[in-house]
Design goal:
alpha/beta; 4-stranded antiparallel sheet; 371 residues; 13 strands; globular; 9-stranded mixed sheet
């Protein structure tokens, strides 16, 4: 398939400029992309976005070039994953022009069946990702990782309210919404109550860190993931000036690996890059998050389909008079539980333990409430 219209909206990567005076070494990602940067054959397509005008906290241009410089210097351990980088979407005259350009690029890539990583820009560009799914009338589960819950109807900038626009859009294609990593002292308590009434899941940062394995099924079930770098602690991402608290660098890499492992996830976005990164550690952190996303994609390629039961250990339980089946992957150790309609939903080991003690898992109950 040709991607001619995609290139009408992007500025291609200049590998020589990003490399500078140092040539890429054998096996580095930059060297491999210089030799082969084929979108048609790619398992993952990287799309840069430098639109930042939607965020009051992000004054400078996004640092897509700085992240690419670090990322291209990493070694490619994942020979089963073909990567292409099509460059940065053109920044429009107005904010809505930039949204529209990103939406058009994503719509074409999604239609072609590509998994996409959107790199850079302020967090409100998430709205363009949602619009790409909506343009295809695709019902989705969306997961956002952020220290803030961007649902402020009186917010001065789109980054403060874009989730409201996304969740109340009519027609609406959000089947389920999850927010991971919010920080309570930045959040109005009544907002969480309203979100819970909609059966949406919000998990604060401490809870995610305490039980990381419990949020993996949430990410696994998602169609797109939007990661705002404001969710990270300043010590691990110096360009983040929102909070001294948040996810560590290891946490962020693990969450991105979960995203890569998901067979349903089609788009991931990492937002909030900045050029003012004196020692380059923030750019290196983001580049390693991308590396782990690719690591997850590699592992997912070797995961058996649920129909192939030889790839799973099967456990039968009778819980609250409900006869159900749990599956555990022999390859990744991940769990699935059978629902009353005989479909399988992503779950965790703790869900299996609850069922084995004759307690219906909370995850099972919440899924049933949404149906």
């Amino acid at each position: 398939m040709e991607f001619t219209s995609v290139y009408d909206y992007v500025e291609p990567v200049d590998f020589a400029t990003i490399a500078g005076d140092e040539a890429y070494l054998k096996g580095q990602i930059g060297q491999l992309l210089q030799q082969k940067n084929n979108v048609a054959e790619a398992d993952l397509v990287i799309v840069g976005c430098n639109e930042h005008r939607g965020d009051v906290l992000q004054k400078k241009n996004s640092g897509t070039a700085a992240v690419r410089q670090k990322f291209y210097q990493l070694y490619h351990w994942h020979s089963d994953v073909q990567i292409a980088d099509i460059g940065d979407v053109h920044t429009g005259k107005g904010l809505n022009d930039s949204y529209a350009a990103l939406e058009l690029v994503l719509t074409e890539l999604l239609t072609a069946g590509k998994k996409v990583l959107v790199l850079g820009g302020s967090h409100d560009n998430t709205l363009a990702i949602y619009n790409a799914f909506a343009a295809r009338k695709q019902l989705i589960e969306a997961t956002v990782i952020d220290a803030l819950i961007d649902i402020d109807p009186e917010g001065l900038k789109p980054a403060q309210r874009f989730l409201l626009d996304m969740l109340i859009a009519d027609p609406n294609y959000i089947r389920q919404f999850n927010l991971l990593g919010f920080q309570s002292y930045f959040t109005f308590p009544g907002l969480l109550e309203a979100i819970d009434k909609l059966r949406f899941d919000c998990v604060r940062v401490g809870r995610v860190q305490e039980k990381m394995e419990e949020v993996e099924p949430i990410i696994r079930s998602s169609d797109f993931l939007s990661f705002d770098l404001k969710a990270m602690a300043n010590a691990y991402l110096p360009v983040n000036l929102l909070s001294p608290n948040g996810f560590t660098g290891q946490d962020a890499c693990k969450l991105m690996q979960f995203a890569g492992l998901s067979s349903t996830l089609q788009v991931a976005g990492i937002f909030g890059l900045a050029n003012d990164d004196p020692n380059g550690m923030s750019s290196m952190q983001v580049s390693q998050m991308i590396w782990y996303f690719i690591d997850g994609i590699q592992k997912s390629k070797h995961e058996a389909s649920l129909e192939n039961r030889e790839g799973f250990t099967e456990y039968h339980t009778l819980c609250a008079e409900v006869d159900t089946v749990f599956l555990q992957s022999r390859h990744t150790g991940r769990w699935w539980m059978q629902m009353p309609d005989k479909s399988f939903a992503a779950c965790s080991f703790s869900d299996y333990l609850a069922a084995s003690h004759n307690d219906l898992p909370e995850r099972w109950l919440r899924l049933q409430e949404r149906n």
